[in-house]
Please model this.
Amino acid sequence: FDDMVKLELPKALSKSLGPFGLRYRHMLVISTLFLMPRCLDRNTGAFSYGLGARWSVVDVLYWTTLSVAILPAVMVTVDFVARRFLHLNGWREQLWLLLSYALMCVTAGGFIVSLTMLGRWGRGSDSKAAVFASTCLVLCGLTALLFLTPTLACSSRRSPMQRISGSAAEAAVGAVAAEAEVARPDGYTIYV
Model:
């Protein structure tokens, strides 16, 4: 039983969580709660100072793109870097942390500066705003496609223990750990 748990549990957790530490919808909630209050505050101030509708549309698209595309990409980069070279220690670990932090800052900063410059350019005229809007929509669409495609492949949300027939699972689990039983509302029994 212990060997089966060691083999199957990481696969089951990987399927339930997806290829990243957080699901895309959780990243969206985090980034939206982090960035959208500033967007609302800026646009409220823009109306009181008499800035036009184009300014507000470009600003909302800017913050939405940051929220939907850029910040989730930064979160995935942090997840990727955190999973690499876990075996390092000492000065090698410190060097890896320094280099990976620098890489993430340069990459994220490059995206944000590029988007900011494009947004400022997009406030110049309606045609420039249309180019900025289409760029933002493409970035958001590609990011959503990138994050949502791996979850389409995971059609089975059942755990490995649920895939085993009921009597075989009960026999295997009951023979090893029959100290305590906890009945779940969905009809499965957890053995502790």
